[in-house]
Amino acid sequence: MPYVINFIRVILILAAVLSTGSGSFASLIDNPGGDQPDESFVLGDALYPRNIENVKPNTDARSKVAVLDNGYSRESVLFWGLYLPVRFVKEEDFLSQHSSISLFVIPSGGLSYLKDPGAFKLSLDKFVKNGGTLFVFSQRFGRDFALLPVPDGDSISGYGWLEDQSSLAYSSILTLLHPVVSRLDTSRPHINIDGVFTVVPRRCKSVLRNSISGQTVMCIYKEGWGNVIMSTLFTDWAYIHSNITRDEVRLFSRILRWTGFPLLSTAPEGLETKQTASVPLIELPSLGFSIQSDDEIYTAGSTATFTINLWNNDDKKKVINVYYDGNGNKVNLLPRGSAQVKYSVPVYSTRRLWVYFFNEEEVFLQTLKKGYMVVYPPGEGNNEANR
Fold it and tell me: How far apart are CA 333 and CA 149, in angstroms?
C-alpha cells in the first residue's frame, strides 16, 4: 500500500506541474525543506558543486564510512565526501558488510520504502550493539525513527519533514556541552532542520534543540558498545541545493573527528582548527510551541489535520490563548506539562496555516506558520471556484 500511495502522489504532482506550467518540479516533491521557509542563509559559492550532473561522489569501497543507498543517498554521499571517502551500501548488503563499517549514515529519507524494514531494524541493532556508530538525518515521518535501536524500555517519537515546518536561521539552541558541538561559535546556530523529537531515550544527550519549541533536534546515546546520533537535520540534501551553513560545516567536521576519522586536507572545516572558548549554553524557553500537519502535499478537497503543540517548561501553571483560521482555544498548561490542539479542515489551495499564541492577559507570545501544498487531479481546475 505505501508504494501505491507514493505512486499516486507522484502522478498527481506531475499532473499539477504539467497543467499549471508554473513552479519547478523540485519545489513540489516531498523533500526536506519543501515547505519553503522564509529564511535563506548560505555559506558561499566556494563550497558548492557546479554542474551538479557531472559531480562524481568521493567513494572508496574500502571506506569505513558507509551511506545507506536509499532516500537521498547520492546527496548524502556527495556531502560526506567533502570530508573523506565514503561508500554506498544497499539495504540487503548491510548485514553482511556491517562488521567492516565504523560509521553508518542513514541519509535524509533513508528509512522510507525499505524492502524489509524488520530485518533492517535487526541489522541496525546488531551493528550498534557491536560498537558501530549510527548517524541519522531527517526522515519523512516521525514513525520512521522507530527503526532505530534503543535501550530496552525506551522509545522514540516525533515528527518528520512531511509533518513539521523546516527552519534554518537561528533554528537551534545549544543546550548541552558535548565534543560534537565543541567548535560551534554560537549558542544559536544556523542549521537546516525539518522535524523534531518529542520522546527520546532516557540516556539521550540532547545537544541541539529547536529554538522555538525547545524540543530535541539532535541527540546522542549509547546502545551496547556503540553510539546513535539521531537528528532531524537535512544537511546532506541542503548541501547539493547550495544551502548549508558554516555552523553545519563545523558541526560535521567535529562529528567525524569524534568518531575517530582523519579528514582530508581539503575538507571544509571552517574554524575547526581554531581553539575557541566554549559558548554559553541556552536554557529551555519557558514555553514551547510548534505546528505539525499529517502531510505537506494534499489532493484538493481532502482533509488536512494540524496538531498545535504547547509545552510548559516552568514550575507554574500557564494559560495560553491560541488563535488560528478564525478559531480560538484557551489551553491550560500544567507545570512541566504539555498540551495539543487538533484542527482538521478541507483544503483547496496551497497556503500556510498561521497560529498566534497569547498569554492569559492577551499579551502576544509567538506566531508560527505551517505550509502545505494542494494538487489537483488531471482535468480539474486549480482554484477554489471549482469546489
Answer: 32
Task: For residue range 60-91, list pLDDT tens digits in order.
Answer: 999 999 999 999 999 999 999 999 999 999 99
CA distances from 133 to 47, 65, 155, 172, 221 (A): 27, 10, 19, 23, 10
Residue 370 to residue 368: CA distance in whole angstroms:
7
Reported as a single tens digit per residue, the pLDDT across 243-291 is 888 899 999 999 999 999 999 888 876 544 454 557 888 888 899 999 9
Instruction: Provide CATH 2.60.40.10 ranges for the chain.
Output: 287-386
Residue recorded with cell 508554473:
22
Task: Give the CATH H-level superfamily of domain 287-386.
Answer: Immunoglobulins (2.60.40.10)
Are the C-beta atoms of residues 332 and 316 closer than 8 Å to each other? no
Q: Which residue has the higher pLDDT, 21 or 329?
A: 329
Q: Rounded to whole angstroms, how far apart are CA atoms 222 and 106?
A: 17
Q: Which residue(s) pair with 190 in the sheet?
A: none
From 101, 48, 58, select the one nearest 80 (Cα to Cα). Answer: 58
Residues of the chain with CATH 3.40.50.880: 52-258
Identify the DSSP state of 261.
P
- DSSP per-residue codes, 314-382: SSS-EEEEEEETTEEEEEEE-TT-EEEEEEEEE--S-EEEEEEEEETT--EEEEEEEEEEEE--TTS-S
Chain position carrying cell 500557564 = 318
CATH class for the domain made up of 52-258 = alpha beta
